[in-house]
Task: inverse folding
């Protein structure tokens, strides 16, 4: 999932990135090289997805929506997955 040059970041995403010491470059790398874990095609106003990307040894989950009409990816939030919630690969939620 590529991130466009002028992709908007929601205020929530920017706040969380600041709190979690995640850079724009980290998000771009995660989206460019990451793996889609879940798709949310019914999300409004745009379908979204959860992507797992890696910045070195640090896993990042990025939730991003795709505005096809404007050819833009909108970053909704970014976080480091909690190992108590996610399995060791950070791909599946624990039961």
Result:
């Amino acid at each position: 999932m590529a991130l466009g040059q002028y992709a908007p970041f929601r205020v929530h995403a920017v706040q969380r990135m600041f709190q979690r010491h995640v850079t724009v470059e980290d998000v771009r790398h995660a989206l460019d090289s990451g793996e889609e874990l879940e798709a949310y095609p019914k999300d409004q106003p745009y379908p979204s997805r959860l992507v797992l990307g890696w910045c070195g040894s640090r896993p990042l989950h990025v939730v991003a929506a795709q505005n096809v009409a404007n050819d833009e990816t909108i970053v909704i939030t970014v976080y480091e997955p909690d190992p108590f919630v996610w399995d060791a690969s950070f791909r599946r939620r624990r039961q």
Remarks:
- The chain is about 20% helix and 35% strand.
- The radius of gyration is 13 Å.
- The longest strand covers residues 58-67.
- Residues 11-79 form one domain.
